[in-house]
Structure formats: C-alpha cells, structure tokens
C-alpha cells in the first residue's frame, strides 16, 4: 500500500516536473486548446435545420395567410355524369329510361336472371328468414349458413377446392390482390386490366410490370428479363413471389385472354395466375364455368373480407338460385353465344363505327373508326348516336372511365350488351338503328 | 389500427369547464365522460408471459411438425407447383398457425337466423383442434346476441316492418347490373339520397353499395398528391386504405388528443411540405364518430374549432355513431348540439343502425356533384340494390317519424337507456370498461391471451354470443371482449348477460378495476342522466 502511495506521489511529481520542463509554445498551445474546449462546451448547440428564428408573431402570420384550395374543384354543369340516365322501375329487358320505354342493351344482364321469378322467390324466402342486413363482418357473427352454402356451391361449380365471397364486386379483386402480393413482390399485368385490378395493385405496393394487351411475346420478354434479374440475386429471388393478373373476358376490349399459353408460361417461369372472371363467369364455357383455372384460396386475409360487413343474405340466396338455374339449363349459354355471333355480324360494316370484341363476347364496344382528334368531341359524337337510339327505343350507354385515373385509357366507345332475353327481331332492330344513327350523325 | 403506442390516461377525463387550461365550457354543452383505466402492473407482466409461453409452444410445435412428429394441417401446394415461391413464408404465419388457430372457434361462428337481439347458432365441433370444423346439424337456439351491430334493432323479420321491402324486391329484383354513371341510377336511389340529405340536414347526399368501399374509393377522389391527411391513430382500415390509395401525405395524431392534432396542424402550415417547403394544397382531418374498438366518441367541438382556426377540412366517418347517438339518432353532430354545416364531409354506413348494407357521403351540393362525377364507385362499381335501398328508406322514415309513429324515437331512447344501464352495472361490478358513457360499443378488457378463448367459450355455454378481439386488431396487451348494446335488448336479456358476466368475472379473475362504486360517489350521483331509471 505504501509502495503504491509512494508510486502515485512519484507520478505526480513527475508530472509537475514535466510541466516546468516543457517548451513555452507547447504550453501555450495546450492552453488554447483547453480554452477552446471550454467554449464549445458552453456555447449553444448549432442545428442545421433549426427554424427557431421564426417568432411567434411570424408563425401566426403564416397561419393567417395560408389559403387552402377549395375542398372540391367546381364541376361544369354540362358534365355528362351530372346528366345521367334515371331508370324508373327495374332495369330488365324492357327498361324505362328517362321516362321512355326502351329495349335494354346496356345492363349486364347476360343470362336474364334479373327478372327471374325463381331467383326472386328465393330472395323473398331469405328476406323472411334473415331480414335484410347481416349487421357484422364475417368474423363477428356475420357468417350465415347461406354464405357457407353459396361458397360451397361456387367451389363445386367452378371445380376448385374452396371459394370465398365478398359483398362488393369491385372490392373482390381489389382486396384479393393485396392479400397475396405484398411489397417487393412482382406482378405482371395486362395493359387493358380494369380499374378494380389497378386499384388492387396500387394497394399491394408490389412492383408492377405491364405487358401489351394479349401479347404473349411481350409478356415472355418481361419474364425473361425478370429471370436474368433473379440470377443476379438468387437469395432475393427465392422470397419474391410472382403473379400474373389477367381477365377472362376483358371489360375494356371485349376479348379473352389466351389461357393455354399463359399456363405454359406459368410453369416455365414459376408465376402464379390471378384470373379475374367477372364477365366470363356464367358466359364462357359449355356450362358457364368461365375460363377455368384451379387455384386454392385462403379465407383468412383480404381487407375487404375481414373488415367489412358480409353480403346481405337475400343476395346470397338469389345467387344460389342463379347457380341452380345455370346448372339446370346449360343450353342458355349456347343461346347467348348464338345471339352474340348474330349481332356481331350484323354490326359489321357500319360506316364510321367499328366493333371491338370477340364474336362470342356479350359485352362489345363500338368505337369511332376515325377519331376526330379530341376525346371530348368523340364523346359528344357518340352521345348523339346514343341519344338517337334511345329516342327510337333502344337503350344504350357509353362506357365510362375516370379519365385522369386510368393507367391506359381506352378510347371512347358505346357499350353494347347482349342478353339471352333479347329476341332476334330486337337484335336486328338494334343493328339497323345503329346503322341509321351512324349514318345521320357521322356523315 | 395504425399504431399501438397509445398512452393511456389513468384517470377519467371529465370535461366540465376546464381541461388542460382550455376553457371549453362554451364548447361542450354537456358533460363528456370517458374512461381508459390502466390495469395494475402484474396484469401486463402476466400477459406478456402468456404470449411468451404460447410462442415457446409454437416453436415446439413447428419443430415437431418439421420432423414429422405431428400432422401438418396447413394448406399445401399442389405437386406441380412445389418449386414455386411459396405464397406464405413460414414465419409470416407463425402467429396464425400457433396462436390464432388454437382459439379460432370463437370467430366466424355461422348463424342461421336473423341477427336480432337473439339468434340461432349452428353447432360446430372440431376433431383436430380447430384446423377443420364440422357441423353437427344441431342449432343452438336463442343465444343472446351481444356481437352484431344492431344498435336500433332494425334487423328484424316482422312482416309488417318488411312489407315495403318485400314489395320492392318483387318489383325490382335483386340486381342492377350497371354502374351509377351508365345505366345504374334508379329512381329508388334518387329517393334514398334525398331522404338521407333530409335526415342529416345537409344539401345533398350520395349512396354507395358497400360501406368499406365508400371510404376507400372516395378519399382518393377528394385528395391527391400535395395534400395532407391528418388521421387519428385508431382509424378503421377502410380510412387507412383510402388515405394510402390517394397518394397524399399522411400524418397521425394521438387518439382523440387535441394538443397532438393542433401541433400537427401548426407545423404543417408553418413548415409546408417536407423538403420543398411549398404550401400544402389542402389539409383534411379524418376522424370517426365512435371508435369501435375503444368505444370512445370523437371530441367534435374541439376539432371543429381547430379546423375553423386553421382552415382545414373535416371528414367524419359515422359508421357506428349514426343512429346510435344523438337525441333523435342523427349522430355525433347532434349529440354535441352542433350544426352539420360544420363538418365538410359527413360519411356513414347503413350496416349498423339501419340493418341494411352500404354507405353514404353527404354534405354541400358541390361536394356531392363532384363525387358523382369523380368517385371511383360511381364509374366502376355496381350501385346499391333496390330492396336494400328500401330497407334503409323505411328505417330512416321510422327514425324521422315520417311513418306516423314515434317508434323511431322510442328506439333511440331505449338504446340510450340500455347503454347507460349496461355500462353502469359493469363499472359497479369492477370490470375495466373503455370508452364514453354514451357509446353503445362497450369494450371489456381481458388482457391475457388465455382468457380470450376461455371467455368466449364459456359465454357461449351460457347461451350468450360475444365478440372477442385480440392482436393484431388491438395492442398486444389489450385483448378485449366487445359488446354491442341494442335497442332491441330487453332489461331481462341485459340482466342475464350481466349476471353471467358477474359469475365469469369472478371465475376468470377479470375484475381488474381499482375503482368501484363506493370510491367515486360523485360520478354516480349525477342527475344529468335524465333518462336513467
């Protein structure tokens, strides 16, 4: 202990001695350094982005001065959507639009089930038993036996393992895509995909790669590019999921996707297929099963499924009855197809308008053969054609889009919808009326 | 939910005339009592312990499954797709596989009757620990329904009540097959929209087929890039999705906390957009009327005064509060005695109080005209189906007294009575209840994961159907049971439920509250509750 004490003392003595023996400049330098450190320690901290130079008065002034935009921009009074068609009564085969009775070529009622008595009585029975609403999401007592039955029947009908129903058509694909495809995954989607798919993709935050409509070569090129990317980073590739989103029957163009080629590409590049069949279900295929594909669906996730009230049971009962009708009368699909072919042929050769869509597609578009240059003018011209037809008893409508929001905006067109309820005379009348209208308006 | 870092107040927030130095005696015309009591510390510890044990067992199970010692029940790929990138990474599903699966039988319970004050459940059993269920074919009859959103009791099958709906169903059928802008606007929609506008006291309204989609499709139409959204911490998924899809910047303020909101507003206007410092195009505040997981009511008077001061816009989602609060059921705007002109966008749904489906947005005429032209739903989604529209019309007419009876008003009053009675009794028993005294949504805190399953199953044995919620819908330590009081519940039903809760509370040790009736006499001697028994 004493030795350590003596040792310490000795170190101190040495220090003092060194102090005396140091050269002057050394001491001065050290002194300045120490003073500088003390100054830094006690001076105010210096922040780069500090705006504390704004006084309270200035802040209040900024708050006073700031003017936001109006909540909504003013809408011109003659905007087409403000002068919409009002339908009185049910939108069935004979529809009363704006007070005038017309033959309905505008509602997607392909199999004519809107007015079917059996469907209505199934819905009535369900109304008596369950009331109207379900008062809860699927997880909290909103699951009714009709929902389960409908899902079973759909799965059986579509020949898949399981099925799940949503309460809103738009929400189905817009919720299903983000349930599987998350940030970092890759989705290859057709350019002509409908708006619901676009919103689903936006919500999923995945990498989107668009390929030209129905162009398999373009898709293959993109897939090959992705493959070379993967080889550079195999570890990342192993956890990145890949999806392809296509529609069975495209709403915007009326044609179908080449499913066999897609399936080949699927197995070659290990991509999963999302098939959106809102138009092709109940239309395509011998039994109306649509463009068939098998994929297992997990029930748990999907925001529009978990956090939203379930489908009202009367609609579920109506859907079950509709499925029954589809299964019991498979010849309606043939009938529908024959009518589509008939009108497709009849509409060919109208001067000024061209038919866009497959010959067996029940939803066609009639576009202007030559655009006038501005979309607004095209829309006005088509409106005149539509009005001419409406005044003579054929109800038609233009296809509507959100012009600023669509990724690939389709050109303006008249939508023609074919249903099984339309008779051959009515089809012929519609075709000849369109010819007349085009003649008088466009020439 | 956007964040679970909510700081709880251990005290009651009683806003009489002074709170945090702001004299808001002029803002609040009646007392506003909310409770968010914090449980004792040992509860939090035990909760984490419970999750820890569950996780350990989860790993053990996974290990046994990987080594084939236990059967694998998860959905597997088809043979041809075995070398595809798997849809679910194993660890993403850990929670679902090992914790949720064990108590899965408490959710998605199928029912086979109208979701009124009592309903019939289909009996379900599982042979393999909840991986699959099978129906025995029996139904459990007359289970008291404390889970469905049936606040005013309009979920009924009375023939007289549904007379008009039956007629309309026969006339119109079930579908529309077109969008609002094409051929899908029926005279029924026009009638309904006029009625909704009349009911709420605004210029115009627009209805949509799905409540969730009303938010997710219209918020992007109202705001875009360069706008700022100030959203409450506990906003519903539909609001969050709508905000995300819009592309605007989102900033979150603490739940119902006006200081947090004001700070965000000031900073936004003073400092502008990040990096470029440009002024924001517009600022919109997203709040809900009643928050369904907390049972709290929005502080509307304070928010409106803030919004007027800082020139922001207010979007109020009244999914749970329309029909359920307010002297005549017109929602939180009426509850606070304010004018509907103070709120820029009034949004609500018809699923809860009206027993139908769908949503609406109401406000000034220029707002609704804009939505008619620019809403995603108007252009791309099918419109509401006519029988559902008729149900809303008849429920709203009943509520407004236009059908010649006072039934509507009676329902609203009955709901208020039931709510206050139920909450008072639960407080007296010593449970921790969250939320405002006037909110018909009553969350009862369970905390521990094991109690979630036990509570729901035992209540079902006593013939009462409850809803339990855990992580991720709530913060991990605050699992709860949520009761939805209905005007259709009779006093006997409520007493049955309360007695069952009393028993179960003792058995499962759920009575965590440190305050019981005796220690806060001043709260229970208030005479402001003029409708109290």
UniProtKB/TrEMBL annotation, chain A:
InterPro entries: Aminotransferase_I/II_large, AON_synthase_class-II, PyrdxlP-dep_Trfase, PyrdxlP-dep_Trfase_major, PyrdxlP-dep_Trfase_small. Pathway: Lipid metabolism; sphingolipid metabolism; Sphingolipid metabolism. SUPFAM superfamilies: PLP-dependent transferases. The chain crosses the membrane at residues 24-42, 163-181. It catalyses: octadecanoyl-CoA + L-serine + H(+) = 3-oxoeicosasphinganine + CO2 + CoA; tetradecanoyl-CoA + L-serine + H(+) = 3-oxohexadecasphinganine + CO2 + CoA; dodecanoyl-CoA + L-serine + H(+) = 3-oxotetradecasphinganine + CO2 + CoA; L-serine + hexadecanoyl-CoA + H(+) = 3-oxosphinganine + CO2 + CoA. One of its GO terms (cellular component) is endoplasmic reticulum. GO terms for biological process: ceramide biosynthetic process; sphingosine biosynthetic process. Signal peptide: none annotated. Its EC number is 2.3.1.50. Residues 101-285 form the Aminotransferase class I/classII large domain. GO terms for molecular function: pyridoxal phosphate binding; serine C-palmitoyltransferase activity. It is an enzyme of class 2 (transferase). Keywords: Acyltransferase, Lipid metabolism, Membrane, Pyridoxal phosphate, Sphingolipid metabolism, Transferase, Transmembrane, Transmembrane helix. Its cofactor is pyridoxal 5'-phosphate. Belongs to the class-II pyridoxal-phosphate-dependent aminotransferase family. Component of the serine palmitoyltransferase multisubunit enzyme (SPT) that catalyzes the initial and rate-limiting step in sphingolipid biosynthesis by condensing L-serine and activated acyl-CoA (most commonly palmitoyl-CoA) to form long-chain bases. The SPT complex is also composed of SPTLC2 or SPTLC3 and SPTSSA or SPTSSB. Within this complex, the heterodimer with SPTLC2 or SPTLC3 forms the catalytic core. The composition of the serine palmitoyltransferase (SPT) complex determines the substrate preference. This is Serine palmitoyltransferase 1.
TrEMBL record, chain B:
It holds the Pfam family Aminotran_1_2. The chain crosses the membrane at residues 39-60. The keyword Transmembrane helix applies. One of its GO terms (cellular component) is endoplasmic reticulum membrane. GO terms for molecular function: pyridoxal phosphate binding; serine C-palmitoyltransferase activity. Residues 141-501 form the Aminotransferase class I/classII large domain. Its EC number is 2.3.1.50. Pathway: Sphingolipid metabolism; Lipid metabolism; sphingolipid metabolism. GO terms for biological process: ceramide biosynthetic process; sphingosine biosynthetic process. It is found in: Endoplasmic reticulum membrane. Its cofactor is pyridoxal 5'-phosphate. Belongs to the class-II pyridoxal-phosphate-dependent aminotransferase family. This is serine C-palmitoyltransferase. It comes from Falco tinnunculus (Common kestrel).
